[in-house]
Structure formats: C-alpha cells, structure tokens
Design a protein that fits this description.
The protein is an alpha/beta fold. It is built from 9 helices and 15 strands. The structure holds NADPH dihydro-nicotinamide-adenine-dinucleotide phosphate. It holds the Pfam family ADH_zinc_N.
Length: about 325
Amino acid sequence: GRAWHLTARPHGWPAPDGFALREEPVRPPEEGEITVRNLHLSVDPYMRGRMNDVKSYVPPFRLNEPMEGGAVGVVVASRAPEFAPGDQVLHGLGWREYATLPARHATAVSGREAPLTAYLGVLGMPGLTAYAGLLDAGGFRPGDAVFVSGAAGAVGGLAGQIARLKGASRVVGSAGSDDKVRLLTEEYGFDAAFNYRSGPVRDQLRDAAPDGIDVYFDNVGGDHLEAAIGALRTHGRIAVCGMIAQYNATEPPAAPRNLALVIGKRLRIQGFLVNDHKALRPAFVEEVGGWLRSGELRPRETVVQGIENALDAFLGLLRGDNTGKMIVTLDGA
Ligand code: NDP
C-alpha cells in the first residue's frame, strides 16, 4: 500500500517537495492487532504543527515514515477478538492505504447511523472540539452573543450552529470568501457574517455585532483576536481553539495590540485541547446526534478523491479550499 511520508521539515508554507507518496509493504497483524484498508482520511490544521521539530502536545512526525492522522477503514485481517474482517473502524493511522495497529487503538463505527466520514467530522474530533470549546472553554450561556472565526470550516461551522441551537442571542461568523459568508447566513443560520479579506476585521465585526459579543470562539488569532478583544463586553470569554493565521508564519504576529483591555473588561482567555474533554463525549453524541437526525444541524464536507491527492487536500485546507470538513476518500471506498 502507498503512504505519505514527510521528507523535509517545512519552514513557513509547506512545499510539495517536502513530501513523498511511497509504496510500503503491508505488515500482517500480530496477536491483538488488526490490519485496516483505509476508506477515508482526515487532513487537519494541527498536522502542520507536527511537521515542525518542536515538542508540543503531540510529538512531531518522523521524517521518511508515514504521517499519522484520523482515518476510517475496513478491517481486512484480524488477530484480535474485538474485530473481524469486514468491520469498520475509526483509528489514528491515516495518510496511508493500509494500516496495522493494536485493536485497542481502533473504535468500531457504523455507516448505518451516519455516513462514515461523519466520524472524522461532525461526530468526531472536530465536532467535539466545537462542542467542548463553546461550552467548556467558552463558558457559553443561552443569551450570549457569539463570534466565531474560521466559521465555514469544520470546527467553526459547528461551533456557530451549536451556539444558535443552544440559544445564542446573536451568532456572527467570519470566513475567507463571499460564497462562504453566504453559506453562514443562508444555510447555517448565522445572524451576520463577513469576509475578512474584504476589509479590516475590527470594522466589519463592529458592523456585524454593534452591541458587542460575549464569547469569541477563536480559530484564527492575529487581527481576528484583536478585533474580538475590542468587541467583547464585560466578563466576556475567549475560547482559544486555534490560530491558523500564524501556523505558516516565520515571524511572531503583530496582533493583539489591545491586550490590556482584558483587565478593565475582566475578560477570560481560555485555551483548550479537545482531548481533555472526553468526558463530554456522551452528552455531545446525544445532543449533536439529535440535531443531525432532526436536520437542525447541517454539516458540510469537501471531498478530495484519491490518496495521490491527499497532500493537495492538506495544502488546500491551509489556503481555505475547503467548506466544512476536508476529507480524502480513497479509490474503491
Ligand atoms: P478548517 O476546516 O477550519 O480549515 C481551515 C480553515 O482555516 C480554512 O478553510 C480557511 O478558511 C481558514 N484559514 C486559513 N488561513 C487563514 C487565515 N490566515 N486567516 C483566517 N482563516 C484562515 O479546519 P478545522 O475546523 O479542522 O480547524 C479549525 C481550527 O481549530 C484550527 O485553528 C485548528 O488548529 C483548531 N483545532 C483545535 C483543536 C483543539 O483541540 N484546540 C482541535 C481541532 C482543531 P477561510 O477560507 O475562511 O480562510
């Protein structure tokens, strides 16, 4: 099977020549292991951090080895009692066609309740990120006015819709194209949205939320964060989910320059990692699963076909080619 290797660590924007799609032997399972043929791969912004050789909350990818990431696939060989060939599983060895792993690192999933790709998006890590970020880190309460950046992406689109469904007084989003802005207001039910490329975020946020905001769900950082600090009301909260505007930067960002406002407004800035919020998973599955069944929550996906295009899918994600969750579907899935 083929697998994507990182061959050189990027400085700034990753270039395709730092990656290679290589043929690898498929290792047969040992006792307690399964071999999976992957059907769908996830590409996610956090993978950019794993390409750097710095200690973080996840270890860096190793050079000239398959990269890792979320994937769903079908078991083709098993030496574990939990799974038989034909079973479908979610696991962490993406970026490749075949994966052999301990059965305890795989979770059974079923395409009957939701499409398999949902376990990489709305019912998976990005969905829980949106739910936990808004409710735990953001301390959201019904009646809050909420601003979400990266709002047409996987996490942001769900964070804004969850805020609406849980009784936000106003939901405002920003995204990088006019088409995405239309999606936010016309399909996701945001009250207002703007294209951050069309003018200063500060001015556009002021127009979209003239009475200010109570919660800022930050996916972007930089000038978005600065604008949000300006717009937040007293005792407002910032859930710092990501800062994608600086993942490829080679210099530290200039903003936020107005951080001292945090004092007088008594703001709370709370970073969070989805993996710390697994206790919320049952409530998340119950509530989000219900909104999916009722049609009140509309998840979107952008699907790129073929493992040979997985790197382009990842690079496209960093540029904003995706609407909703970016998925790579392998041939034969
Ligand atoms: P998205 O689906 O949102 O894809 C990334 C999006 O970022 C692109 O579509 C693009 O949309 C936007 N973007 C890229 N560059 C910029 C920029 N300079 N300024 C503003 N927007 C930009 O990805 P995810 O939903 O998977 O992730 C969203 C955020 O959540 C990321 O910051 C990620 O790191 C973070 N995250 C954090 C987790 C945690 O545990 N804390 C877990 C999962 C994700 P556009 O066209 O609008 O520019």
